[in-house]
Amino acid sequence: MNIEKTYLxxxxxxxxxEADQEAFEKEKYLAAKEMSKDKKIPGYRPGKAPxxxxxxxxxxxxIIDQALGSFLDEIYxxxxxxxxxxxxxxxxxxxxxxxxxxxxEFIVPLQPEVELGDYHDLRVPFExxxxxxxxxxxxxxxxxxxxxxxxxxxxxxEEGSLVxxxxxxxxxxxDPEDEEAQIMSNQPLPVMIKSEDEDDRKExxxxxxxxxxxxxxxxxxxxxTHSYExxxxxxxxxxxxxxxxxVKIEGIRQRVLPDLDEAFVTSVSDAESVxxxxxxxxxxxxxxxxxxxxxxxxxxxFEEILKDATVKYPPQMVENEIDGEIEEISNRLESxxxxxxxxxxxxxxxxxxxxxxxRPQAEKRITRGLLLGKIADQEDLNIDPEEVTSTYQExxxxxxxxxxxxxxxxxxxxxxxxxxxxxxxxxxISQRTLEFLKALAKGEDTSQFRKSEEGEEDERGEENSGTxxxxxxxxxxxxxxxxxxxxQDQEEIDDEN
Length: 497
Description:
Elements: E1 2-7, E2 12-18, H1 21-36, H2 51-58, H3 60-82, E3 92-99, E4 102-109, E5 113-115, H4 133-146, E6 149-152, E7 162-171, E8 184-192, E9 221-227, E10 242-256, H5 262-268, H6 274-306, E11 310-312, H7 315-335, H8 340-346, H9 351-379, H10 385-399, H11 405-412, H12 415-441, H13 454-464, H14 470-496
Antiparallel strand pairs: 1-2, 2-4, 3-4, 5-11, 6-10, 7-8, 7-10, 9-10
Helix pairs in contact: 1-2, 1-3, 4-6, 7-9, 9-12, 10-12
């Protein structure tokens, strides 16, 4: 078996394999015999006819198709064994170049690779945002708006007014008395008058309709005309026509905001005063701002690291990440009583549109995750296993009560339990690495994140050696007893796991 490989730009391997002709002929023979067991060939019992007759009866193409599946299943693992590269996942047959000799081209995705530059001199200025009063006012305005009521008013319509209308529409060249020519007749339509800078392209019955109602009063009647383009996206009844709309104004309503007082504040929050309510909003915005500042800071850190680093991964890795994101979206939608198809319809997109929308963030997550993992391995940061164990125990305690002892024990002896421990450990390593990078980029001391050197531990041990006095002996004895209990507790946890 001869193998040639070519590295592709998308971090995959193109592998051309020339296999043994005799081995392929043998596979064809076995396939023909197997296929003939279900076919009647005159003069022979099932599976006993000569190969040449089977070929004449079934066709060589069908036999080759049957043989290829088994042959490829047999040689592909051997191909992988001879490669010096570790595959990321299953490869695929890209092309059958020849059957004499049998020559196949495979595409094999490779394990991701990360080459780090010298990031230890990394310095990135940290910019902290400050919450402005305007932001607080916007949140309050939005909350007031959500509690607004709609009331009739006695002044002409203005921006933001809700105008109740009745509309009759017919072509301008139609007989006004011909009811069959009417597109609509006395149809009720409440219309919110848009501001001048709002998008009105999807306004009905035509763009800009609402602003034609500025200044109207109840009892007014208007006649408005609009010419529709002859396009497929225009309703068939309106396409290419000029329509006259007769509009009767039935009433005008306005959204009225509640007062910002203690009654409002206590109805939407646990604050006891308007000032306390504003302070709560400021605190929430500060927390949000801190998260956004930190995310932006990590964006800048990774951008700097990437300037002197190389990250390679195969396209299948991105597709798998996108698949996972879509599955999460589907699960969230199901919890809200929707499905993915309904969501796509509401967003006016298909599955491929959704995948392309997710792709940039998926690529970003993969790149960051690979960088983070490489740095974590290289730095060998100090991770407290007791913190992992403690978090694990809290999760188990939350999910299994005292009455669920059997289920608890079954879980702790299951693969899911080990998977949870691994996930918690991975999350802690990632968080610790992020904290390390943040301190590094700010120019702060990073020694706290690294494991203590053995020499330092020995020195501390020598300093503490010697003959203690009676008081020290008692304290040491208590500490040893406490350590013994902790070790015993840990061993019990390990036994449960």
